Amino acid sequence: MEYSFESLQRQLHHLRMSETSKELPAVLRKAESHSWTYQEFLRELLTYEERRREEKMIEKHLKWAKFPYQKSLQEFDLKELPSLSERQLKQLQELFWLDESFNLIFLGPPGVGKTHMAIGLGLEAIHQGHHVSFVSMGELVPLLKSEEYLRKSQLKMKRIREADLIIIDDLMYMAMDQNETNLFFHLINHLYERSSIILTSNKGPEEWGELLGDQGIATAILDRLLHRSEVLHFNGNSHRIKYRKSLFQAKSVQS
Fold first, then answer.
1. Backbone dihedral region for residue 101 (phi beyond 0: left; psi -120 to 50: alpha; all else: beta)
2. How many angstroms separate the Cα of 118 from the Cα of each of 93, 157, 165?
3. Rounded Cα gap, residues 161 and 195, in angstroms
4. What processes does the entry annotate via GO biological process terms (predicted)?
5. Do 164 and 196 meet the contact criterion of CB atoms below 8 Å apart?
6. Average pLDDT value for residue range 185-212
7. Which of 242, 18, 218 is nearest to 109 (CA)?
8. From CA 191, how far away is CA 64, in angstroms rounded?
9. 148 falls in which pLDDT band (50, 70, 90)?
10. Over 80: is that where the pLDDT of 235 sits?
11. Partners of 132 in beta bridges
């Protein structure tokens, strides 16, 4: 039985191998020029399909993560963070803490690299096959409050709850009322020992009780967050101020 080239492509597409279907002409030409065996040809096709599926999965997970920007750990200057050694950074990159559902809490003033480090670890997790969700506290509170009646909020919260790693940025940047505190507690309670959480905050845990407005709930939240966690203190001057761009400097260079 003879098969036309187009019918082979249709079959590949039917088998949900659309990427391989598109690449088939190039692979066939390569096979002919290198006199591949059937086994070599098949291996090349399957390897290509596997690689493209992995790339598309990473693209999808990056889209779902909702990072405000993408900065890798390779771009992080450890000289700016003397409290973290190169060995410790490598340990974080290995993601053993994620496999064990440990939390990471990054504390320090604004602009010292807390969010950069969190996003870098989030990117690493995605490339290692994990689901990641990034949300700022300013976004999270309205989502929690509107989840009951807004479909969009329900979908976003579903992804957050199902993620392997949740990054909550700018925790406790402002005071919360009783309802907001209760909703936040229920989220943390749901995630407890199911997922890993990275928190960034410019306020220490000792200040959270006042901002949450309820010392009892604050204690319960802290208990769940700190039970299995590593706290990293980011010190130093703001990178944004140190590397800020000046309008007048730019104009003087041009002139």
1. left
2. 11, 20, 10
3. 8
4. DNA replication
5. yes
6. 89
7. 242
8. 18
9. very high
10. no
11. 165
**Which CATH code fits 73-241?**
3.40.50.300
Please identify which residue in the block is written with the tokens 């066939």. 28
The ranges assigned to domains in the chain are 5-63, 73-241
Q: Which contacts of 180-183 are long-range, i.e. CB under 8 A and separated by 24 or more positions?
A: 180/141, 180/144, 180/145, 181/212, 181/213, 181/214, 181/217, 181/218, 182/217, 183/141, 183/144, 183/145
| 146 conformational bin, left if phi > 0, alpha if psi -120 to 50, beta if neither | alpha
Residue 3 has pLDDT above 70, yes or no: no
Residue with tokens 């992804």: 159
The identity of residue 86, as a single letter, is E
pLDDT tens-digit profile of 39-97?
A: 988 888 888 888 888 889 999 999 999 999 999 988 888 777 777 888 888 999 999 99
Q: Give which of 250, 178, 247 is closest to 211, Cα–Cα.
A: 178
Q: Which residue has the tokens 């690449």?
A: 23
| Helix (H), strand (E), coil (C) string for the chain | CCCCHHHHHHHHHHCCCHHHHHHHHHHHHHHHHHCCCHHHHHHHHHHHHHHHHHHHHHHHHHHHHCCCCCCCHHHCCHHHCCCCCHHHHHHHHCCHHHHCCCEEEEECCCCCCHHHHHHHHHHHHHHCCCCEEEEEHHHHHHHHHHCCCCHHHHHHHHHHHHCCEEEEECCCCCCCCHHHHHHHHHHHHHHCCCCEEEEEECCCHHHHHHHHCCHHHHHHHHHHHHCCEEEEECCCCCHHHHCCCCHHHHHHHHC
Rounded distance between C-alpha atoms, residue 206 and residue 188, angstroms: 18
CB atoms within 10 A of CB 234: 21
